[in-house]
Structure formats: C-alpha cells, structure tokens
Records
---
Amino acid sequence: MENAEVKTLARRLFKPLIPEAEGRWMVISGLAIVIFVLLLALLAEFIAPYNPTKSTGDVLAPPSLKHPMGTDNLGRDVLSRVIFGSRVVLMVVFTASLLSMSIGVPLGLISGYFGGKLDRTLSMLMDSMYAFPSLILAIAIAAVLGPSILNAMVAISVVYVPTYFRMIRGQTLSIKSRLFVEAAKAMGAGHFKTLSRYILPNIVTTIIVVFSLSVADAILTEAGLSFLGFIVTAPTPDWGYDLSAGKPYLPAGYWWMITFPGMMVMILALGFALIGEGLSELYAPRGER
Amino acid sequence: MSSLKAYIITRALLVLPTVIILLTLVFFILRILPGDPIAAMVGQKVPPEVLEKMREEAGLNKPILVQYVSYLYDIFRGDFGRSMIWGKRPVINEIADRFPATLELTIFAFTISVLLGILTGSIAAFRRGSKLDASMRVYSIVAYTLFIPWFGMLLQMLFGVYMHIFPIGGRIAPGMEPERITGLYVLDSILTFNGEALSSALLHLFLPSLTLGVVLSGAYTRIVRNNLIEVLHQDFITAYRARGIRRSRIAYHAMKNAFIPVITLMGLQFAILLAGAVLTETTFSWPGMGTFLLERIQYRDYTSVQGAIVFYALFVAVISLIVDIIYALLDPRIRY
C-alpha cells in the first residue's frame, strides 16, 4: 500500500479517538465493558474468591459480604462461577466469529467482484441460510454433532457466514464500479491486485463493524445454546448453562442464581453492540447518518 | 394481466428454489455432516442391531441420492414420516398439535414489539436531540441485547413469584383448555364464548409475549425513529407546517409515510422472532414448536427433529412471501 493510502486508512480507523466525533462515547463505553470482561477471563484465577467448581459449604446462601452474589444449590460461590464463566463464552464466540469472517469475507469479495453464475448461486444459498432462524440452525447442527465446546464453535460459525457474505458482497459491488477501481484496472492491475489493494482497504471498516455486531449477536446465540444444554456439561461454569441450572430454584425465590449470570450475558453483548453501533455511526459518510 | 398479479406470481415461483435450498441444507446438515445422525443422537450405548433397526426405520440405510429424492418427495406430499417414540404418530400430527402454541405466542409478541417500537421510535423522532431521544436510542440497543431466558425469568420472579399476578409457565390453567377449533386458545375461547378460558389464556400469554416483544422492539424503535426524522424533513411536511395544519394531523401523515420500511423490517425480524420463541418457550414451559424440537432431540427422535426443522424452513419461506406481497400492495414502486 502507498504511504498516503495507509494514512487515510489509519485516519479512518482511529477516528474514534477524535474527541468531538459523534458516536465516540458508545465506542468508548463498549470498549470499557469488553476490556473489563476480558480481564475477568484472563485473571480469573487471581480475582475469583473461591474455586468455581467446589462447594463452599453454604448452600443457596443469599448475597452477603462473604459471597457477594450468593451461592448456588451445590454451595458454589456464584461470583466465582460468573468470573470463570466468561472464559467459555469468549473463547467460543471469538473463535466462531473469526471462522465465519474468514469464510464469509473472501466469498463475499469474490462473489461481488466477479458476479455471474457463481455470484447468483452463492447469493441464493446465503440468502436462504440468512432467512432461516439462526438459533434453530445452530441447534440443528449442535444436535447432530453432539454437545461440546468445539461443536458449538462450528455451529455458531456456520450461522454467521451469511452475515459477513451479504455485507461484504454489497460493499464490493458498490466499490468496484467507482472510478479509482476502473482506473487501477485500466492501468493493468490484475484481479488479485485490484481486490487486495483497492477494494479490501475500502471495506476494512465495514468488516470491523460487522464483526462487532455479529459478535454481540453470537454472544446471545452462545448463551442460548448453552442454556439449552448444547455446550458445556456440569461442573464447567458458563453463563447460559448456569442460568438454566438456576431455573428450578426460581419459584422458591432464589433470585441470585439467575440474576448474575444472565446479567453478564447482557453486559458483554451490550459492550460489543455499543462498539459496533458507535463505529458504524463514526464511519458512515456524512449524510448517511 | 395487472402488474401486481404478475409480481405475485413471479414472487411465488421464486419461493420454490428457496424452499428447495433450505430443505437441501436441512438434509445435508442432518446426514452428511461427519458421523451418523442416529449414532450421534443415540450415543454409544445402544447395541448395533438396535442402531441398524433405527437407521432402517428412518430410511438411512439406502443410498444417499435415493434418500434425498424420497425426502423431497415425501415433504411435498405433506408426509413428514412417523415419530420414532411412543405411539409412532405421524410427525405432521405432532407438529399440528404444537404449532398453534408457537403461532399464538409469536402473534402476541410481534404485536407488542411493533407497538412498543412505534411508540418509542416516534417519541425519539418528535423530540429529536433531547434527552428523551438519547434514552430511546439506548433503549433500542439494550432491548436487543437482553438475553431472553434471563429477562423472562426476571419477569417471572417479579410478577409471578413475588407479586402473584401472572403464572410463570404453561399456556392455560390445567383442565381449562377450550374446545379445539383453531388450536389458538385465545381465538378458540372467544369462538366458544368461554370467558374463563379466555382470561386464563391471556394471563398465561402475557409474560412470555412481553419478554419476546420487548427484546424484538429495539429494532423497530430505531427504524421508526430514523424514517420519521427523514420524512419530517420532506417538503410536504414543511408545506403542512406553513399552512398551519395541526401538529397531530402532521404527525399522522408523517407516520403513514414512515411505515413502509417498518414492513420490510417485519419480514427480516421474522426469523429472529422464531429463534427467540424457542428460548421463550423453554423459559415459560410453553408447549410449542421450540420445546417440541428440543424435547425430541433429547428423546433422540430423529424423524421428529427433521420434521420440526423442515417445518420451520417451510414456515419461513411462506412468511417471506406474504411479507413481500403486502409490501407490493402498499408500495406500487416495488411491482415494476
């Protein structure tokens, strides 16, 4: 890439740092949330007051100074489980989203750039998949593959390929007809060079926005699959799974077993949604807001 | 032939490839993914001869192409096979038992989400730039990120366990079911003048449809707000203002024009509605399609699982067709 191009791209990417930019507070608060949860996951051993899979002796104890989020039906500290629970969801969602991105983005680029029969076939396939309820598709795949963390990653990554494909294909279509791409081609740039040097840098911001938004959605899908029992088995802590474990104790009023794990799902999804929404506002050309 | 008719016919014909792609996808996922679906679902503990018998029952011992053709043929005849457990009832009958519950839930949730979305979105648009606008925009993001089982359980806790206003699960009080006409309890109890059943059904519907409705409303808030702002800037609104037409009258005209994109969103939201219904049904022990699918996965009833997913695919295709036709009726530009 030319120096000037790098600079323009960098300016666009780092626009969130400009103080007066609209949508900036969304990106900053979203980032704060995500970094907070990442730290929880990385430093779980040092932060968590108890072992998340061992009983502390107090069964179904309400929140107190000793157990800020109470204990569950097996006497395990809910706070410790919430802290350790961030690991599975982050791992599953990041791996799955990177997988769907690495399939969806190239397919979208190729489909939008070359057009023709390939484009029609791929678009039809992806549109059909997109129309199908994502959680139900993920349930079907997870049911066939069997419940495990690895299979959940596969199921979730399949579900989000069409999201990347559709966005990237659309962007590629609109960029490839722009003058600078025509000029590059006229000056003898091959397909690969046109795609990688002229089109790709122009869709980087779209990829980042789609990534943040689809991660937010994937967090809810992961939690849903986990809640339905398709990801982890006892005693592994995972927010969705812990929520379903607390469900039978709800009618008796043990609110702390469900309140905290579910709240974390929302907070983490909100973090990524805020980043995505804020960035899309920042990157949108003037007038499209 | 009118352009509308031509449009509807073309659109209806286009459903066929979509349906076939979806059915092929389901077939592919349930069969060609690594491993044998029956073995995967049953687990390792079953003796091989039982496994073989189950595969035969499901028609999984034939060549894959033969399976595929007979699978498509059966579906188009409306034959979804027979359940592999209990009375071995036809799967289509099992679905007919469960589907009305899901339909009833989704209709109510959908209505709540659209009404909430229009309310919050127009508040934001008419008070653009105010604190109220900002809080409505935050609402639209937060509502979307609410985790359905969690939000549902919080409502159960508040209104069910502590306040005893609403029941926390089921479709109707035991033994109160109205005589079956459509399978939709609310409609059936109205048709049979059964007041007790009606109030019980509505009480049971309230929390699940509120849960799903609130979560889905965020997307409507945003689209209503953005469209309304755009319409409010158009010349005809300025002209109305200049002529001194009442604010409420202007609001009415602006809303009417801002509504068309909302219908497109309704079509797009439908898949999310169905996916959300699975979690809502599980949270509220609602005997619909979602709980049916999960229950049969647990019982390893392979034909029922396949039937349920195929049914979802057909349902999605039909709804997208209906939405497109409504869209064409409302906006003549689409037809050409």
Note: Chain B touches chain A through 51 residues (CB under 8 Å).
---
Amino acid sequence: MAELAIKGGLVATPKGMLRLDIGIDRGQVSTLAENVDAESVIEAEGCWVGPGLVDLHAHLREPGFEWKEDITSAALAAAAGGFTALLAMPNTNPPVDTGHVARYVAERGNQTGMVEIRSAGCVTLGRQGLALAHLDDLIGAGVSWFTDDGDAVWDSGVLRQAMEYLAERGCILAQHAEDPGLARGGHLHEGAVSSRLGVAGLPAAAEELVVARDLALVRLTGCRYHVQHVSTAGSVEMIRQAKAEGLPVTAEVTPHHLAFDDEEVATLRTDFKMYPPLRSAADVNVLRRALVEGVIDAVATDHAPHAAHEREVPFEEAPRGVIGLETAAAAVNTFVSLEPETFFERLSERPAALAGFAEQGRPVMVGNAAHLVVFDPHAEWRPEVFRSKSDNSPFRGRLLRGRVKATIFSGRISHLADVAAAIRPGRGSSP
Amino acid sequence: MIRHLLTTEDMGREELEDLLQLADEFVAVLGRDIPKVPALRGATVSTVFFEPSTRTRLSFEKAAKALSADVMTFNPATSAATKGESLKDTVLTLRAMGADLLVVRHAAAGAPWQVAEWVDVPVVNGGDGAHQHPTQALLDALTLRQRFGKLDGLRIGIVGDIRHSRVARSDIFAFNSLGAAVTLVGPSTLMPGDLTGWPVTVVSDLDAALPELDVVYLLRIQLERGGATVFPSLPEYVRRFGINRERFARLHAEAVVMHPGPMNRGVEITPDVADDPRSLVLDQVRNGVAVRMAVLFRLLVDGEAAYG
C-alpha cells in the first residue's frame, strides 16, 4: 500500500512509454506495476506520466521586482504548468553577479517545497558587458550556467575572455543573441507587418549576426555554448551545422515562438511584445521542425512577468516579455504535437541535463525521486486565470490542447488541475 | 457599437465618399458670413495631443467650434503627464470630465486603438507614430476632388520619407480606394522595408517620374530625427528629391503640388514652388476644417454613441 499512486497512465520509463501504475512513498517512486494500491490515487487514464518539466529560462523577478512576480508565485505557476525545476535568469536587482544572490534564489526556491530552483549567473558585472562577473564565487555557489540574458554579451573581446574562463570550468555560456546596432529602436520583427505599422523592426540578422560571431568564438575557445530563445531559420541552420561539426552547441526555443508569427503583432497588443520578436511564418515552421528533429534541444519558457499597469501603455513603450510557465506544455502539444518520448526529452530530460539538475528529468523508475507530471494530451482548455502574479500571456483566451492534470514534487502533490475529479481516496483509506 | 476613425486601411470607397460629400457641405457652411451651425451643441470634443501640432489640433478645435461643440484641450507639457500620469489614466480622466469624443495624437503606433478600448466614446486618430493619420488622407482627397472632380485615374507620386510617414500610410490606402494610382519616390533608406500588400509602385528616379504625374505629394523630411543615418547629407537629398523650379517645369500644365506641412522650405520644396498657384498647400489646410467637421458630425450625430 503506497502513500500515493498514479494509476492508468502511459508512463515514461527507461524502456519507453508503458501503461503502468506508479506507487510513491517517502518522496520516491516505490513501485511500478500493473496495479498499485495506495492511500490516495490520481487517476491518469489517457494521460502521459513522466518526469516533471524543467525550464531553462524563467524570470522569477525576485529579488527586486516583486510586484511582477516573486519566487513563491513563480513556484505556484511552475507547479500549475507541470514544472518541478526552474533555472532562474540573473537579471534581477541586484543582478546575480555574485554568489550570495545565487544562493538566496536557490534557497528561496527550496523553501517553497514546490519546485527546485537553480540560479544562472551573469557573465559580466551588473550585466554591463564590460568586466567579468565574480565567476568563481558564482561557481562556488553552484552556478554552472552564465548569461547576461535580456542583453547579448556584445563585446567580442569580453565574450572571448568569458568563454575561455568558462570552458576551463566546464560551464555553459548562454547567449541572448541580439545585435544592439541592428536591434536599436526595434519593437517587433522587421517585415511586412512592421512596415505597415510604421514601427521599427528587429531584422532576423540581428540574431543571426550574434550566433555566427559566437560560433566562431566557440571554435576558438571550446566553450560550451547555448543559444537562448532561438527565433530565426538562419540561426537554426547555423546551429545544425555547428552540431554536425561537433561543436559543444545547444539551443532552446520558446512556446510562443513555436505558436505564433508576426501577424499576431499587427494589433499591437502588448501581450505579444517580446525579444526576440515573433518571426515570420516560415521561421515558425523551421523552428517546429528543428524541435522535432532535436536540432533545438529544449523548450524553454522565457517566462517574463510584467504587471498589468506596465502593459497598459502603447506597444513601443511596453516592457518586453510574456509569461509562459502555465501554458508551455499545452502550447507545445497544440502547435508541434511531439511524440510522448520526445515531449519529455525536450521539456524535461534534456534541459535537466543541461542545467545540471541531477535528480530531475530522469525516467520513471523505482528509486528515483518522485518529481512527476501527469499530462493529458487531449484535454482542451482556454487559459484565463493564472497563478503567476502577472497575466501577460499571448495564449490568454486561446484554445489549447493538452493540460497538466497533476504535478508531483518530491512525492507530494504540488498541483492538481481539478481536485475533485482528479484525486480520490484509494482502497486503503479509512472512511 | 461605438464608431471610431482610426485608419484608412479598411475604409471602402463608399465610406470615404460619404465623408467627402458631407465635407463639401461643410465647405459651404464655412463660406457663410456666420460660419457656424448648432449641430453639436452640448457635446464636448477633447483634443489629446502627446506630440506637437499646429494644424491638426487647431483644425479639429476649429471644426468642433464651427459645429457649436465645446472643446477641451489637453496639453502634455502643462499637464499631470509631466508627473508621470499614464495615457490610460489621462483619457479616463478626460472622459470622466465629460469628453464625448477624443482626438488622440501619440508618438507610438497603435495608441488611439488602445484609447478606443479604454473609453466608451468615439476616438479619432489624430496621428499615431508613423502609422496612420486618417483625417489627413480625407482632407487630401477632398482637395484633389475639388481640383480634378474625382480621383479615378489620377497618377499621384508621393515623394520623400515614406518609411517614417503616417501621412503616406493613410494617403496610399485612401487614394487607392478612390481610384488613383500611387507611385512612391524616394531613397531606399526612406522606403518601408517590405511593401507586401501595398497598392503602389516604387521608383527611385524622380526626374523620370515627373512627366507622368498629375500630383506630386511631397513629404516632410523630418530634420528633427537627424538625417545622418538615413541619407548622407541634406544637400544630397535636396539634389535628388527636392522640388525646385526646374523640376516643377517638367510637370504637365494641370499637375499640382501638395504637402501636408509643416514645410521645410528649401529642402523638399523651394519657396517659389511652395507659393505657386499650382501648390495646393493652403487648400489642404482650409479643407482640413471641413473634413474634420464631417468626421465629428458622423461620429457624434449619426453614430449610435450618445452624448450630453
């Protein structure tokens, strides 16, 4: 008799997807069998059950911007979206350019009891792009992922220094690829829509220029390199070639870049403002294919909360970024429809391995930590209400297919979509 | 449903001609000894201009007064906007004070659409970024109709900084709906990057284009933007795209010159051409009042919006 069982689902095991019951005790998977009895039961008929999702790219806004989000509200949003681990971006205030801020973020994550959080570190002091951040101090605090996300590390000399340093320490340099000159004054993808609106755009070349330059530096330094929120067909092609060449290169794509093209921005709704911007329909098709093929390693949300009053302004004055934790799994399932094995690989196994979450993203097997998601790939819903403090979602009101039914963190239920229907007392419980 | 005037892109010929016809009637009203009618007595029109303007704001206010409406002028420089009050709070405040229609100009594209979502009264786009300026297109069309009888078949060349021009973006779609053929002339750095879906042809040689045009519509070079990165020098622009006496002579005898103002005399147009009888610049200004009367009348009287 287990404490908790997930019954009837299609389970991501080391041998592939199998229809099994999962028993959970003391935070671990204790049984995998055709029939498991438990004190509490989550019915998972028709659902995929696999490792909890892992996000390589979340802006938790704490410390410094708690009116947009804090680590507790982000943890609630993460659990609602099926996530059990988050990599926090370092553009907080103060930024994560020293070890103690990284420790604070991870510690606050642990306190929530809903999600494991590691912090990325800044590449440069204060994200200024001039001098290296306290890299050794950050590495000592457990940081293995470095980015000035929000801005590119633009100066090639500074970037080369950082890459040489991080290569020796086995860390990853993750780049927000955006050429500041080509992006200057731009608010959306440069194309027919921006021309019609008379608003300056960011050309695809603003991203591709940086990726091309960075790959040359990867060849020079051997540093592990990750392209954040890749958005253009040209970038995908360069990443494909770099991988074929054997370079230590990986990439992520966001759900919104998989779902929407720049036509969505024609109405100038600020819930569609993000950098990189939504690209052309041709780019979107290439991104979808690249995710299926594995040229793009992972889905990452770029969860970027902004409060309502900050977004009720003209598009050009609105802050960049949209939330994504609560809709990521559904959006990917709606717009790309991956096989379940690939789904868990791109949203859990691969990102966990890249970010260094040792106990996350593991296939379901006895003895593994019970960080699990129960995902119904057929359920249809429209996101209207969010656990995040902010609701700047481009998916608000859209019909999505696939819903997180339950999330389990360390053997405990961190989210249930529909409490009454999803869970029932098992046979062992007393009335 | 509340009606607004936000863009010419979705205005059909019928809607445009209706407004032009009504404007013709207001042209007659403005020619009377007492150029005023009581049509909008009791209504309040508020001009909310976050960018500087001479003719558009004054022309809207003159139009409102000629219809006997009251006018509430919002001036950002002397308002709580200097204390950081948002656009949304500003327009909600004006509405709460009794504004029955808002004319909004803003440096950011799309701002009038947002205002239209926030308030429950008609909104007129008085110019948003480089996006749209629909009443300019109406007054330009009215001016051409007066001169040529109709726009059908007219060959109109719009010259200069198309990329940053809300006038061009409004004129192109209105002129096209009314049957004119629009040619864009200018350096590639001042052309929009992607003209997919625009009913235009593009040329870069002004001198070759001139004899084929009935109308040369000059756009203002926005000197305040600093031309340095979009063309090498101002003299170079003047040499390639400025209209002077020699170029004016290449036009056929009936052809006219237009400009939305304010003009940079000596840049896109030489003073002698600007003041030539075939320059319609002041007709455009005059017609601006009548056209805006037509717009205010249609939105406040004929629209389903109640006021008072």
Note: The radius of gyration of chain B is 19 Å.
